[in-house]
Design a protein that fits this description.
Bound molecules: 3,4-dihydroxyphenylalanine
Number of domains: 2
CATH class of the largest domain: Alpha Beta
Radius of gyration: 40 Å
CATH topology of the largest domain: BirA Bifunctional Protein, domain 2
CATH architecture of the largest domain: 2-Layer Sandwich
Strand content: 15-25%
Number of helices: 12
Number of strands: 11
Distance between the termini: 84 Å
Structural class: alpha+beta
Length: 366
């Protein structure tokens, strides 16, 4: 028994001297582990006489508790020392200014496209898309511009050097109108779609960039006439510019894919020398600005879309999204749209949560 008290004293001294958790664990195993000396003593109780057990039992239990208590206390001390050391290393300077949240803004073109989708969705239009790398059949031929058509030359088209597998010339689409053909072929009729997206022309100055954005509209149904077109455009422009005093002037024009073709002007008023959409038109101090191309879909285009032009009629329209953004939000140089200048984006961009809704206002600024 003297020996076991000696062993206990030795173990407690080792525990006190242990400098790290691994050493401490080795000490624990040597004392309390299966082969440990405390476990051996506990096992020896079974072979003792009842009297011996009564006197030795509590002593052995006390030794076990002393050792395990010392181990736990030393463990806690070592752990808190390790934590202290870690905290001392990883200082946080609370006097530093809070970091700026990662910020970005929604580009006015994206915002205006969302506004347009919202306005037209309310009139039952779905959003359709088509490829920016197009073939000349969808971009021209099926829109009633055969190979010899002079309108092809007006588009300043970017062509690819190679033809596709079907032998069609490949190009960057010059307008969103090919989505009319793709939608008719894919969906059939009746049809009510808008198609916003990028288009490309070899052209560059203050109001032209080689890449810009258009939105196309197409309605195919039975008994469609110019009245439907006019109402749709008027309703759209009123919602977009958020004014009830929008006046339209429809002028006869020419596009190969519509017959008759109509150019749509919107009235403006001069406010501090700047043209503001709304009112105006033929009244004094007002004027007209061209905003849209449109017309009744040409019978040939309906047929190229795989539909019977005796059964189905429709109207179509197309306009520049960038230009709509400029008119609504007051930018005057188109090139700045695509410079990626953070100051411009900060000024003209929209907050991520400024989602246009008809109820909240499609033009609400952040
Ligand atoms: N695609 C024409 C362009 O790029 C715009 C256009 C005019 C589209 C009349 C139409 C339309 O759908 O009916 O200039």
């Amino acid at each position: 028994m003297e020996q076991f008290e000696q062993q206990q004293a030795q173990t407690l001294a080792q525990v006190a001297a242990a400098a790290d958790l691994d050493t401490l664990e080795a000490i624990r195993v040597a004392a309390l582990g299966k082969q440990g000396w405390v476990s051996a003593l506990l096992k020896s109780l079974g072979g003792m006489s009842p009297e011996a057990r009564t006197s030795e039992g509590p002593r052995i239990q006390a030794a076990r508790e002393a050792v395990s208590g010392a181990l736990a206390a030393r463990k806690a001390a070592l752990e808190s020392a390790a934590l202290e050391a870690k905290l001392a290393n990883e200082t946080v300077d609370l006097s530093l200014p809070a970091p700026r949240l990662p910020r970005g803004s929604v580009h006015p073109v994206s915002q205006v496209m969302d506004e347009l989708a919202e306005i037209f969705a309310d009139m039952g239009f779905a959003v359709a898309t088509g490829p920016e790398i197009e073939d000349d059949w969808h971009n021209f031929t099926a829109l009633n511009m055969p190979e010899t058509h002079p309108a092809r030359a007006m588009h300043d088209t970017f062509y690819f050097p190679d033809k596709d597998a079907a032998g069609r010339a490949m190009l960057l689409r010059t307008h969103t109108s090919p989505v009319q053909i793709r939608s008719m072929l894919a969906e059939g009729a009746p049809l009510r779609i808008i198609a916003p997206g990028r288009v490309y022309r070899s052209d560059s100055d203050a109001t032209h960039t080689p890449m810009f954005h258009q939105i196309e509209g197409l309605v195919i149904d039975k008994g469609i006439h110019i009245g439907h077109l006019k109402w749709t455009l008027e309703t759209f422009l009123k919602a977009f510019f958020e004014r009830d005093d929008i006046v339209l002037r429809l002028r006869p024009s020419y596009f190969p894919f519509t017959e008759p073709s109509i150019e749509v002007d919107v009235g403006y008023t001069l406010v501090n020398g700047k043209r503001v959409i709304g009112g105006g038109g033929d009244v004094a101090g007002g004027g007209w600005m061209e905003v849209l191309g449109s017309g009744m879909v040409n019978r040939k285009v309906i047929a190229f879309g795989g539909l019977d032009p005796d059964e189905w009629q429709g109207f179509a329209f197309g306009t520049g999204v960038d230009r709509l953004a400029m008119l609504k939000y007051g930018m005057d140089d188109l090139r700045a749209f695509f410079d990626g200048d953070a100051r411009w984006l900060e000024h003209y961009g929209f907050g991520a949560l400024d989602v246009p809704t008809l109820s909240g206002g499609v033009g609400a600024r952040a």
